[in-house]
Amino acid sequence: MASGRDRLLVVGGDSSLGAALADHFSGADWQVQATTRRPDHVDASHPFLDLTAPIADLPDADVVILSAAAARIGDCEEDPAATRRINVEGTLAVARHMAWRGAHIVLLSSDKVFDGTEPRRDRNDDPCPACEYGRQKAAAEAGVLALGGQGAVLRLSKVLTPDLDLLADWARDLDAQEPITPFHDLYLAPVPMDLVARTTAHIAKDRAMGVYHCTGAADHNYVDLAHALAASLGADPALIQPTSCQAANIPAAARPRHTTLEMAIEEQRWGITAPEFDDTALQVTAQAV
Fold first, then answer.
1. Is residue 42, in this structure, part of any structural domain at all?
2. In a domain, 80, yes or no
3. 153 domain-assigned
4. For 236-265, how does the pLDDT look when each residue is reduced to its tens digit (9 = 90+)?
């Protein structure tokens, strides 16, 4: 490597998470390329990759971050075969191909590998997914961990970003003095994008292996998130009118009571702790307005 810089390949550069990771590593002086499945976006920094097709020519890399996924729980329930081709078969094909070429593989996974019945799940607990997306992520985890010293998994709870469509819709309605109806029985333990990027960077730099977690400190419902947004907007909190996700026919698998994960190793090794809900919610909603 003539430049002496570590080479990173982000699989899934079209997503907000993949793009943010590419930006973070570029700022840390990594040589970064991020895949795209949009032919009109292909250039020297964005090689083409479609996880539903045979592997195309991919650039050499020292570390590969697998961030592409069909992540909508409803989509996975409705079409498990098609989503599995992306989340398991295509993802593991890239992982094995790039590991064979010497790369260290980091899979971004999800708290949904657990059923959500217990808080702060231990990384050594056996996966017990309650939804198809969780089952697919558990299968992808097993394949990456089978790479041994070349494989790592980073499980994430809800990654909260200012460009979240839900926040934009709520902000528009609150600005117009219209009520919003957040779910009082749907929960999240949000983490900001910058914490995900920093945690991923530690794993990549250390070529760490095994399972890692990045999660909020506690689960809160979406009503709490709505109140944080209203506070950032200076909107009338009386416009927040809680409703039930059960009444909206959201399946039980998509509304676990707990999404938190324990983060003992991350704190001991890198000084990373699970952020408090108020800190994350206020930080992100302030950026969204």
1. yes
2. yes
3. yes
4. 999 999 999 988 878 888 889 999 999 999
Q: How many structural domains is the chain composed of?
A: 1
Characterize 83-111 residue by residue with b for buried, 16 or more Cβ atoms within 10 angstroms of its Cβ, and e for exposed.
Answer: bbbbbbbbbbbbbbebbeeebbbbbbbbb
Residue 87 CA to residue 70 CA, distance in Å, equals 6
Range of the domain at 72: 7-161+190-218+260-275
pTM for the predicted model, two decimal places: 0.95
Query: What SS3 string covers the chain?
Result: CCCCCCEEEEECCCCHHHHHHHHHHHHCCCEEEECECCHHHCECCECECCCCCCCCCCCCCCEEEECCCCCCHHHHHHCHHHHHHHHHHHHHHHHHHHHHCCCEEEEEEEHHHCCCCCCCECCCCCCCCCCHHHHHHHHHHHHHHCCHHHEEEEEECCEECCCCHHHHHHHHHHHCCCCECCECCCEECCEEHHHHHHHHHHHHHHCCCEEEEECCCCCEEHHHHHHHHHHHHCCCHHHECCECCCCCCCCHHHCCCCCCECCHHHHHHHCCCCCCHHHHHHHHHHHHC
Burial label for 7, CB within 10 Å (0-12, 13-18, 19+), is middle
Per residue in 200-221, pLDDT (tens digit) is 999 999 999 999 999 999 999 9
Distance CA 17, CA 113 (A): 19
Cβ–Cβ < 8 Å for 139, 76: no
Distance CA 11, CA 35 (A): 5
CB 83 within 8 Å of CB 132: yes
CATH number reported for the structural domain that contains residue 137 in this entry: 3.40.50.720
